[in-house]
Amino acid sequence: MSCTNCGTGKPNGCKSNGGCSTGGCNRMNAHDWLRNLPIADMDSVCKVIEVSFSQGTRKDFFRNTSLQPFEKGDLIAVEGVSGFDVGEVSLTGEIVRLQMKKRNVKEDNPEMKKVLRRASDRDVDIRNQNKAREPEAVIRSRAIARQLKLDMKISQVEMQADGRKATFFYIADGRVDFRELIKVYASEFRVKVEMRQIGARQEAGKVGGIGSCGRELCCSTWLTDFKSVNTAAARYQNLSINQTKLSGQCGRLKCCLNYELDTYLDALQHFPDNCDVIQVAKGNAFLIKKDIFKNLMWYTLPDSNKQYPLSIERVNKIKALNQQGIKPEELEPVDVTSSKPKEAEPEFVELVGQISLRTLEKADKKKKQQQQQRNQRPQQKNQGGQQQGGGQQGNQQRRQQGYQQKGQQQKGGQQQRNQQQVNPNKNEGNQQRPGNPNQGKK
What is the DSSP letter of 264? Predict the structure, then answer.
């Protein structure tokens, strides 16, 4: 799966933001299932380790002469072409012997290169600087090959860690005379040039990608042996010969066409041979397809487009009759209707329960009425405030009128008092005359 540092956020590992779901950062790795086994004899310990370069696109074996304890994922410096190279340890221990046996590499091979040391910070910096030159080298090398009019395609350029050697991987249909090209590359990039021809499937494995199945390409994750794929594999599996559907990212037929081919070939052994055409009274029946799961053979008649499924026993019987010169009246097709009882379709059930449209309409009406009432309340408040304002104005007017009347009455009373003060005797004489008996006696 993906590396431990590729979970979320910005990873510190392969910098793919967790996209390597099936091994994009550790592709072509083998699971070390012998790792936890105890070591019985130190003298018989495997002294060879497997080292991967360029994120697993290239792997090689190196001899650990000093028996340094390396773990998977350690960066080490190994012998290169007139220099050194930096790679990552992918396998150690007894599992390396099984991988060497798989690739026909002998452990005592004298030409096997050695491990120098653990990679220092300076070694890693030099490697990163030279790796940064690879994209520009690819563009420039393609332009040079086009100028020399060579029928080839530069797929990838791999620089050695110390920058003294460059490997150019190219694709070509035939042989290419690149003697002049090597001279130009050597003078242009100032490195020792190695040309290595690869196929379209190997290029797809180096580049990587996502297949039509939604997973990463098999050639870039685990597939190492590329077997030839023919259209016959598609015919055996009753697949339509459609080039766009049967082709992979490399433009060739998909490697997965071979995965189930053996199963189909074993199942097709029970089917009769030379039964592409059988004769009946209505005419010749032509074979359309073979169903290995139901052991049926489908035929069509020339007068109709209908397909008739026949059992293997029936086909053998018709074939035997035809060899005797007898044509049966009918094909007697098999009824392929499924014996499973049809499930009754469930009735329509409202997922919202017993709620109907009428109840929903009533609820909408209630909401509208409540909203209207809420809108009317502030209007009534405004009108009430205006009425209250008008009543206050009327009260003020009445008060002013009352004050005016009171003022007039007070003025009139004061005038009367002033008049009484001006003629006080007159009033007194008028009052004393009828009521003074003593004055009349005198």
Answer: H
What's the confidence (pLDDT) of residue 168? Answer: 93
Query: Helix or strand or coil: residue 14?
Result: coil
Strands 296-300 and 283-291, sheet pairing: antiparallel
Distance, in Å, from the CA atom of 86 to the CA atom of 52, rounded to the nearest integer, reads: 9
> What is the tens place of the pLDDT at every residue in 214-244?
888 888 888 878 888 988 899 888 888 888 8
Q: How many residues in the chain?
A: 442
Q: Which tokens belong to 168?
A: 């150019």
What's the CA gap between 123 and 47, in Å, rounded? Answer: 24
| Angstrom distances, CA of residue 222 to CA of 4, 5, 26, 87, 102 | 20, 22, 10, 20, 14
**Computed from CA positions of residues 170, 171, 172, 175, in that sequence, does the dihedral angle turn out positive or negative?**
positive
Contact yes or no for 84/71 (Cβ under 8 A): no
Give percent helix, percent strand, percent coil of the chain, each to the nearest 5.
40, 20, 45
What mean pLDDT comes out for the span 157-172?
91
CA 42 centroid distance within chain: 48
CA distance 161 to 9: 30
* Amino acid in position 230: N
Nearest by Cα to 49 from 112, 125, 1:
112
Structure tokens at 79: 């012998």
d(CA 230, CA 246): 10
HSE-up (13 A, CA, CB side) for residue 220: 24
**Can you read off the two tokens belonging to residue 100?**
């060497």
Helix 179-189 and helix 134-147, axial crossing angle in degrees, nearest 10: 140
Q: Is the pLDDT of residue 247 over 80?
A: yes
- In this prediction the pTM is 0.61
| Rounded CA separation 297/281 (Å) | 19
| CB contact at 8 A, 292 and 237 | no
CATH fold label, 130-206: GMP Synthetase; Chain A, domain 3 (3.30.300)
